[in-house]
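User: Assemble these into one structure.

Assistant: Restating your components, then the assembled model:
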Amino acid sequence: AQKVTQAQTEISVVEKEDVTLDCVYETRDTTYYLFWYKQPPSGELVFLIRRNSFDEQNEISGRYSWNFQKSTSSFNFTITASQVVDSAVYFCALTSSNDYKLSFGAGTTVTVRA
Amino acid sequence: EAQVTQNPRYLITVTGKKLTVTCSQNMNHEYMSWYRQDPGLGLRQIYYSMNVEVTDKGDVPEGYKVSRKEKRNFPLILESPSPNQTSLYFCASSLNRGLGYTFGSGTRLTVV
């Protein structure tokens, strides 16, 4: 069975602070895929990044960066110099080669105050 | 534009009145799925379909039905809605799980 844990329910920061969202996953499969989605107040799910289990290279995209560590089964997400527009719910998700289902964590609500 | 289209976006209904939420994708994806989102629980899979006429239960299928008569459409049917089905619903499709999933804009359902 697959499982994704986002232990942080809510995070509140002041603008320009950095914020790191934790994601820990469980799967028995050796081939799997990890995702991060953003859900702004408008409600839609916005795709941010995907990673496959064979690619542990960290990635940076503008103010966003991701740290994938297979040794600790973690796929953490950092927003650098946060802005009010970053306020949203962020979901980490997992699927694998043996299961099309996308398993989501409970989500972390990020509030960035001006 | 490649997309998953859900309708309606918002729906308020009464207990027991059958309803259908439509989902259509224009990307020729074989895989489609329905999720519901509830506070503190993330998104949970209701039903999924690997291809036309092939559907299966997800984690929370009770009270829902689906059908896949055409590749592009995957409607979600609530035969007798109850208040505990008040939720935000998402339809998703995928060509290849490694490439990711495309989600619809969501349907916010309230059952009173």
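The interface with chain A takes residues 31, 33, 35, 40-45, 48, 50, 58, 88, 90, 92, 94, 97-101, 103, 105-106, 108 of chain B (CB under 8 Å).
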